[in-house]
Amino acid sequence: MPISVLLSERKYSFLCLASILLISFAFLLLTYTSYPFFFAFPLPSDIHVSVSSPPPPSRSSSLQFPTEPELETQPADHLDLNVSLNIRWRACRLGSVTVDYIPCLDNSKAIKQLKSKKHLEHRERHCPKPPPRCLVPLPKGYKVPVQWPQSRDMIWYSNVPHPKLVEYKKEQNWVRKSDDYFVFPGGGTQFKNGVTAYIDFIAETVPAIKWGEHIRVVLDVGCGVASFGGYLLDRDVVTMSFAPKDEHEAQIQFALERGIPATLSVIGSKKLTFPDDAYDLIHCARCRVHWEEDGGKPLLELNRILRPGGFFVWSATPVYRNDERDLESECAMLFWYSVYITAMVALTQSICWKVVAKRNNFDSTEIGLVIYQKPSSYSCYAHDRTKRPPLCDRKTKKEVSWYKPLRRCTSRLPVDSNGNLLGWPSPWPHRLRNKPQSLPAEPDAEAIFNEDTKHWAALVSDVYFDALAINWASIRNVMDMNAGYGGFAAALNELPLWVMNVVPIDAQDTLSIIFERGLIGIYHDWCESLSTYPRTYDLLHSSFLFKNRKERCNIIDVAVEMDRILRPGGYLLLQDTMETIQKLNPVLRSLQWSTSLYEGQFLVGKKGFWRPKY
Fold first, then answer.
1. Number of domains in the chain
2. What is the pTM of this model?
3. What angle do CA 145, 86, 142 make, to 5 degrees?
4. pLDDT digit string (tens) for 165-182?
5. Where, by residue number, does the polypeptide cross the bilayer (predicted)?
6. Are 573 and 604 in contact (CB under 8 A)?
7. Same domain assignment for residues 585 and 517
8. Radius of gyration of the chain (CA)
9. Is 508 left (phi over 0), alpha (psi -120 to 50) or beta?
């Protein structure tokens, strides 16, 4: 019936009913404006909303995945932490690598398509796109890790069940299996008399190497099971140990399980993810890197990340002396060494490295080494430039070392805003709190740095230690996912733990400042997987990490990566906006994490032992 007829016949009962319907519809429309999730974007087939008890409709505002439209943030006292995205999680199924799966290093499809492996391209990062959304299973019999400091000397065999290294290095005292444990005696290829004696030997050889005072930040190339870095901790030295995956089975995983700082990396075709002039000392004990290859690019990369005035300790001594086979190995190694050292002499001279000590008589210590020092001025570079690699373009000094190719050029020395060469940092521990020389030139830069240091000291003391449900006694391996100036790590300095400071590639580049403070860190893009083993960290710290990454990174993928690298029983400590917390908490709950909220901005998540069966 036409509306005009209804009006002419005064069908008031119809008009009343129609008005009520229109008003009701308008009311519903306005009510749901704040919750567009249910109107605009259907959920994928493997995700649906669930709650432990039926919540009021307003709770659904936190469940905007994966499209993540704008939403109205709910007050903290209205947030239901029981809201969960009931994602049908599946276990990763990748054969023998499953329990140790590293997406960007185990991408077999991409590796097979490489045109060359000459420069170890197959050991570099090749991240799958999109990132996998499977969960890495636990090794059979996985246990809560042995706590530090006992973990330096022994770990559970079931947590890193890789016995090949025991057999491969049985004569060199790296690691032994004893009942349910792996035991680390403190030996190594170069540590025939123990790593402590080796560390003392280096300091005695060059007295300027004052461990824990002049030398604070060390890089150990091809680190084995990282006993060198583990024992340097006793000297107040923090060592970044690194090696490629699978060069020796699970060596970096052994290091991390022991509670020793380490990362997976390789000197191949790309720059290492460290800033220029980062390390006080770089150590290489028979690390089998061909420094002279490709025009000397590998050694030029070490020169880039070595601080001016810093040391390169290179030891390569034959240690096999027992039978004919060992003597043959020794002779072969000596022949290789004589050829190789000739190339090294020419290369180190071309970049003005000075030999400050050499022991090649293989005395009772059974150690032979050369210690070089990088120049701290341009005086040497000015002579006979035709025999030297060219100085790198000034632009490269400002670039973040992320997927950047190695270059055959000599890194420029660091300067301040007035062009003056930077000096050596203050002795440790003063360098932790003194003004870094590499601070920006802005007038208020020092004030901002000092305020940042005070802020983190107060926040850690008043909130992180006293107000949050975190058992700090169980924490050893820590990662700050958005490190800034490293203030969080500085505030934890007195605790028996270490912090991997991550500077995101799209954030202000502060990594040089972090190293100058005597801390360690890496660059990373949180839209990709980290180059580390599963179950690496006891605590992940995130301070407003997601603020500028909503458009680039899917929060579900970041949560999956956090779940991969966090140990069962480990914590996520997140400070962020309520909008971010509303989005992240349901994902963590779907992973069977427990969560708690403090003052509307601090979310604490604790990972359990749950893993999907299929």
1. 2
2. 0.86
3. 15
4. 777 766 666 788 999 999
5. 12-35
6. yes
7. yes
8. 28
9. beta
